[in-house]
């Protein structure tokens, strides 16, 4: 595989050109997280080939969203395949597995054909549905689709992905033209940013910057910058971003938002984006628990509104802290990333983990639990992609 330019959306340490640890780095890694680099790599490999493959439906050519161990329930197939497909792209990048890349393409195509508005007569074409509300098209999920689309285009060179790019760009551009809204409701023909929606500017910025990197067209850089300028107006005085109803911080709307601000600084040299990223990161570190996790929801008054944890969000935030540490060499950012990685490792379904339950079920072991506490004993492919990326990037960074 040809070495790629540094990607903005990272899948493995190679995307950010972080070398694998050598002997001294291995010692540092074991001291900090208790495992060797080889052991961390085994966690990634087993997650993909043991757990994730158990969710893959050969007939549909796509991944079921999650598996619930307590009653053997397998969920439906939905738009989550855009994000979950990246698990297989990781397998291709790490092992040169051509079959895994084919599965990634199949997952993407299923989501495009079944969860995307593609009718050419609709000006909102290119929007991606939520599984729960088929009439609503979300910028967040459309940005996921664009990120995966670009990853597949970069690895396959297939021109058809550029056709899909135009669709996704059309929808996100519509959101920007209508005040950077978060979703479009087909039943009312209107854009919204409150009520069951997330204002996910980070994924949009990252997707556009990678599109600019790949195609070199300045309009995509301008799109990223426009979303970034709007994002700065949404940052609260305490440094946080309350991106659900302008009232709640959510851990799912954090990692990409923090990274995108850093990327804009790297792209433009404008200090205001780095300053914004530091303010947000410092707020995050104040809210990080001793075990490395964050609760899923905090309101503007600083109270935890949802004490549960979305475990996959934790290592994803850790990746962003690593990126910030490359610019601001403050130990607190690296310590936060270390704690996030250690929490991630505890949430894998293995012996000695925090929840070593149902390990005799072959569909459980090596996956990552979807919630803490384990209210439903479920494991999902959209959680696992953040864990395996975090293990690859944070682990390599610590040992490099």
What percentage of amino acids are in beta strands? 5-15%
General shape: globular
Summarize the biggest pleated sheet: 4 strands, antiparallel
E-strand count: 12
Category by helix and strand content = alpha+beta
**Mean pLDDT score:** 96
Distance between the termini: 22 Å
The Rg value, from CA coordinates, equals: 20 Å
Distinct helical segment count: 13
Give unreliable regions as ranges. none
What is the H/E string? Answer: HHEEEEHHEEHHEEHHEHHEEHHEH
Share of helical residues? 40-55%
Q: Which strand order do you get reading across the main beta sheet?
A: 5-6-7-8
Q: What is this structure's SSE topology?
A:
Elements: H1 23-33, H2 37-51, E1 56-57, E2 62-63, E3 66-68, E4 73-74, H3 81-95, H4 98-115, E5 128-129, E6 136-138, H5 139-156, H6 160-177, E7 183-185, E8 190-192, H7 201-215, H8 218-234, E9 248-250, H9 255-268, H10 271-287, E10 297-299, E11 304-306, H11 313-325, H12 331-346, E12 378-380, H13 381-399
Antiparallel strand pairs: 1-2, 3-4, 3-12, 5-6, 6-7, 7-8, 9-10, 10-11
Helix pairs in contact: 1-13, 2-13, 3-4, 3-5, 3-13, 4-5, 5-6, 5-7, 7-8, 7-9, 9-10, 9-11, 11-12, 11-13, 12-13
What key phrases describe this protein's structure?
single chain, alpha+beta, four-stranded antiparallel sheet, three-stranded antiparallel sheet, 52% helix
Structure explained in plain terms:
The protein has helices at residues 23-33, 37-51, 81-95, 98-115, 139-156, 160-177, 201-215, 218-234, 255-268, 271-287, 313-325, 331-346, 381-399, and strands at 56-57, 62-63, 66-68, 73-74, 128-129, 136-138, 183-185, 190-192, 248-250, 297-299, 304-306, 378-380. The model has no long low-confidence stretch (mean pLDDT 96). The longest helix is centred in the last third of the chain and has 19 residues, at 381-399. The protein contains 13 helices and twelve strands. Helix content is 52%, strand content 8%. The protein is globular and about 55 Å long.
């Amino acid at each position: 595989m040809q070495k790629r330019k540094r990607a903005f959306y990272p899948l493995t340490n190679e995307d950010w050109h972080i070398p694998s640890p050598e002997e001294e780095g291995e010692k540092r890694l074991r001291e900090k997280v208790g495992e060797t680099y080889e052991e961390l790599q085994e966690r990634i490999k087993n997650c993909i080939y043991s757990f994730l493959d158990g969710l893959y439906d050969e007939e549909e050519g796509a991944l079921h969203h999650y598996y619930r161990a307590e009653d053997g329930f397998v969920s439906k197939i939905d738009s989550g395949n855009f994000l979950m497909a990246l698990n297989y792209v990781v397998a291709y990048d790490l092992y040169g597995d051509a079959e895994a890349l084919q599965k990634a393409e199949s997952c993407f195509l299923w989501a495009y054909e079944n969860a995307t508005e593609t009718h050419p007569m609709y000006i909102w074409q290119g929007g991606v549905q939520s599984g729960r509300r088929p009439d609503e098209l979300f910028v967040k999920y459309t940005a996921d689709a664009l990120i995966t689309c670009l990853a597949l285009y970069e690895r396959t060179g297939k021109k058809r992905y550029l056709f899909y790019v135009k669709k996704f760009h059309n929808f996100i551009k519509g959101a920007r033209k209508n005040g950077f809204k978060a979703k479009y409701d087909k039943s009312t023909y209107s854009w919204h940013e409150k009520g069951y929606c997330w204002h996910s500017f980070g994924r949009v910025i990252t997707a556009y910057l990678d599109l600019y990197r790949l195609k070199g067209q300045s309009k995509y850089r301008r799109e990223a910058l426009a979303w970034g300028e709007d994002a700065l107006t949404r940052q609260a005085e305490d440094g946080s971003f309350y991106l659900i109803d302008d009232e709640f911080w959510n851990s799912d709307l954090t990692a990409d938002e923090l990274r995108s601000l850093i990327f804009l600084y790297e792209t433009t040299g404008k200090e205001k984006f780095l300053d914004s990223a530091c303010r947000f990161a410092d707020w995050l570190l104040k809210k990080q628990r001793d075990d490395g996790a964050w609760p899923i929801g905090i309101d503007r008054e600083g109270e935890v509104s949802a004490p549960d944890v979305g475990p996959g969000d934790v290592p994803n935030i850790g990746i962003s802290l690593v990126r910030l540490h490359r610019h601001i060499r403050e130990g607190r950012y690296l310590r936060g990333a270390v704690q996030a990685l250690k929490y991630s490792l505890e949430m894998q379904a293995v012996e000695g983990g925090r929840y070593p339950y149902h390990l005799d079920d072959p569909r459980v072991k090596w996956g990552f639990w979807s919630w803490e506490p384990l209210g439903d004993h479920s494991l999902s492919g959209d959680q696992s992609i953040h864990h395996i990326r975090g293990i690859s990037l944070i682990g390599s960074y610590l040992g490099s």
